[in-house]
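Help needed: design a sequence for this.
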């Protein structure tokens, strides 16, 4: 844990306005083990809503851990404006 941290919210988790939901992009994932296992799960089970939601839940958990490490504050840079707007609406809401 740190007093202040900086966080780059990249393209692996993003808000899709057209579908009105959170999405993930495995091509942008830098964790090769996670990416390999997620691709394997999709290959074996198809990209059904249950599989996608399962993987999305894991990505949410990863972000939760990273976003909650700062004790006093966190600075977040967003790659995507729609994601930034959705995040701010949740935090401020």
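Sure. Designed sequence:
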């Amino acid at each position: 844990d740190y007093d202040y941290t900086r966080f780059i919210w990249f393209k692996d988790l993003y808000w899709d306005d057209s579908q009105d939901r959170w999405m993930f992009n495995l091509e942008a994932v830098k964790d090769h083990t996670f990416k390999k296992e997620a691709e394997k799960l999709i290959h074996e089970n198809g990209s059904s809503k249950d599989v996608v939601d399962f993987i999305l839940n894991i990505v949410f958990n990863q972000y939760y851990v990273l976003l909650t490490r700062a004790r006093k504050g966190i600075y977040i840079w967003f790659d995507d404006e729609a994601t930034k707007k959705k995040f701010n609406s949740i935090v401020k809401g």
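The chain is about 50% helix and 25% strand.
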